[in-house]
């Protein structure tokens, strides 16, 4: 039986670059030869969520949401637009972080759809956060002497979003690799505006847990942290702020290793993609540092 992967994301009418990471990760997975077909679908762009299954000839489809947390889009919008027969969020049996996979039939196409949890809550996302630190510092061994901040929207916006931030911050902390690890928020305490108040380390890597770079990651956060007075003027990496060096990495979703998380979600749902996972990990690894 032929199998397809569909990566679904929000997209944007206002920021054409928001869909770029989704296309990039789809290309990476396509090159790895994991599926007969790899497609993308969007809420705000074409092909739409409502039509994306029709772009697949395969009888069996693995759908992976390119979203950070469980919530309105993953629990209501996507299942509705895909027309998953009998969809019930309780089938995920999730605590807000543990959505895995639920299998349905698409009402209009008859395809078997394995609907996976969002990429942002998968444990392998922690590896991508760390990889983001390696990329921004150009140091595959970064950690000693460095603080690490994971940044999210805030608890008022989406309780599950905050859960994802705390979950990955704790997992990074448990590695013991960085001197200090802190979860920070745009709208709640502890706030990213005060990033230097939460670290003694002179060097701090800051990684937003966002799928793509946009208004928040390119404008709000750099200005809030004092990297620049005006995002249009750009900022240094690292940037000197209150006696610290801030290594601002931008959205985690732009890191090429994100393709691995998509494949991990599909693997957890039963797709035979282990060889592709190894291939993606190898092709997206950070090059050795200049001193190696």
TrEMBL record:
Listed name of the protein: Sirohydrochlorin cobaltochelatase
Gene3D superfamilies referenced in this protein's UniProt entry, alphabetically: 3.40.50.1400
BP-aspect Gene Ontology terms: cobalamin biosynthetic process
Keywords from the UniProt entry: Cobalamin biosynthesis, Cobalt, Lyase, Metal-binding
SUPFAM superfamilies per UniProt: Chelatase (SSF53800)
Pfam families given in the database record: CbiX
Superkingdom as given in the UniProt entry: Archaea
Example GO molecular function: lyase activity
